[in-house]
Amino acid sequence: MSNSPGTSRTTRRAIHLAAHFPGVNNTTVWSAPPTPQAPQVSRPGSAGPTAERSATRQSAFGSQIDFSSFTHLARTAERGLFDFFFLAEGLRLREHQGRIHDLDVVGRPEAITVLSALAAVTEHLGLAATVNATFNEPYELARRLASLDHLSGGRAAWNVVTSSDAFTGENFRRGGFLDRADRYTRAAEFVAAARELWDSWPPGVERGRTGGATGSFAHHGQHFDIEGRFSVPRSPQGHPVVIQAGDSGEGREFAAATADVVFTRHGTLEAGREFYADVKGRLAAYGRRPDDLKIMPGVTFVLGDTAAEAQEKAAEIRRQQISPQTALLTLEQVWGVDLSRYDPDGPLPDIEPDYEAQLSQGRVRQADPRAIVASWRALAKEKGLSIRQTVIEATGRQSFIGTPEAVADELDTFVQTDAADGFILIPHLTPGGLDDFVKRVVPLLQERGSFRTRYTGSTLRAHLGLAQPLGEDTAA
Amino acid sequence: MPPLNRPLRLAVALDGGARYSASAFAERAQLAERGAFDFITLEDSLGQPAPGVGRLDALAVLASVAPATERIGLLPTVTTTHTEPFHLSASIATLDWVSRGRGGWIADVSTSEADARLIGRRPAAPIDELWHEAGEVVDVVTRLFDSWEDDAEIRDIATGRFIDRDKLHYVDFETATFSVRGPSIVPRPPQGHPVTAIDATAPHARQTAARYADVAFVRTQDPDTARAVRADLRERARAWGREPDRLIVLASLSVDLDASADAVALAELVAAWHTDGAADGFHFRPRDAERDLRLLVNGTVPVLQHRGLVRHFYPGATLREHLGLPRPTNRYALAREASAR
Question: Which of A190, A191, A297, B5 is 20 to 30 A from residue A375's alpha carbon, by CA?
Answer without folding.
Answer: A297
